[in-house]
Amino acid sequence: MTVTNAFGFMPNYAVWQRFNIPLFTLYILLHLAALAAPFTFSWPGLWLFAFLSFATTCLGITVCYHRHLAHRSYRLAYPLTIFFALLGCLAFQRGPVWWVACHRLHHSQVDYKGDPHSPRYSFLWSHFLWPFFWHPQLDKNKLTLQKLAPDIYNDRWLLFLEKNYTLINILFLALLFTVGYLWDGWREACSFLVWGGFLRIIYVLNCTWLVNSAAHLWGYRRFDTPDDSRNNWFVALLTWGEGWHNNHHAHPRCARMGLTFGEFDITYWIIHCLSRIGLASDINTQLSTAPNAPKHI
């Protein structure tokens, strides 16, 4: 059963009344601001871009938001959980409560009509459009968030990050500009803001969105899951191991997504290293079949 709206490439709830104009405008402005990168280039700015891309994507999203908070595939020392969750906020993908609830909903309805970002509607929907429409189960519905992510919602510090997500990002962008100015005046301030802020945010967002889109469209399937998940080496390279998506959907609670020597999974090895120094424990590497999901939208 195909459930799409009048446009034909979005789900039926994606109507103008649910279109988040302020958020869409903000993302467009961020993309436009990132175009200033060639005119604000500096070597410190480039290194800041690389460092913050790793910190916010790998440590913030994949190590913390995804494998720790969403799937509880291992235990992480609590102070480090909050710090990594703060980095996740700086990836500009919403706070930990909403992110975890969204991801758990994705797994429960993967490539079915409740999935927030299935490419069975269209590549454009899964890669870019889906965050800009209020989802009937996720947005403006605290009860659903509490039901999908009670463990995150009831943690006072994670809830603090959720409630102050916008302020955190504004303050961080201001910090980048200030540090750049103190480093070497106005030019470095603009370089830090654009490369460490705007360009890095757009890069991280699009890398993450590729997991939703490309990793459900192109690649190979090691496991016969009822969804369209694929193992995609290019997405894995950009997202520190998240591109082994078919492996993940077959075994969602496994902390390790790359299952062979050729499936490099940097995130898992970071988790492993954290365990060796006593900051992570109870790492789940068991392969267990994912729950069945409906096969068609």
List the helices and strands and how they pair.
Blueprint: H1 21-34, H2 43-70, E1 75-76, H3 78-89, H4 96-108, H5 123-129, H6 142-148, H7 150-153, H8 156-163, H9 165-212, H10 233-238, H11 245-250, H12 266-276, E2 280-281
Antiparallel strand pairs: 1-2
Helix pairs in contact: 1-9, 2-3, 2-4, 2-9, 2-12, 3-8, 4-6
Can you give a write-up of this model?
The protein is mostly helical. It has one domain. The chain has helices spanning 21-34, 43-70, 78-89, 96-108, 123-129, 142-148, 150-153, 156-163, 165-212, 233-238, 245-250, 266-276, and strands at residues 75-76, 280-281. α2 (43-70) crosses α4 (96-108) and α2 crosses α12 (266-276). The longest helix has 48 residues, at 165-212. The chain is globular and about 55 Å long. Mean pLDDT is 92; it is low at 290-297.
In short:
With 297 residues, the protein is mostly helical. The protein has twelve helices and two strands, in the order ααβααααααααααβ.
Percent range of helical residues: 55-70%
The proportion of strand residues reads under 5%
Could you give the order of the helices and strands?
A: HHEHHHHHHHHHHE
Unreliable sequence segments: 290-297
State Rg: 19 Å
Round the mean pLDDT to the nearest integer and report it: 92
Q: Can you summarize the main beta sheet?
A: 2 strands, antiparallel
Widest beta sheet: strand line-up: 1-2
Head-to-tail CA distance between termini: 6 Å
- The figure for the number of domains is 1
Instruction: Compute the number of strand runs.
Output: 2
Please identify the structural class as seen in this structure. Answer: mainly alpha
What coarse outline follows from CA principal-axis ratios?
globular
Query: What is the count of DSSP helices, taking H or I runs of 4+ residues?
Result: 12
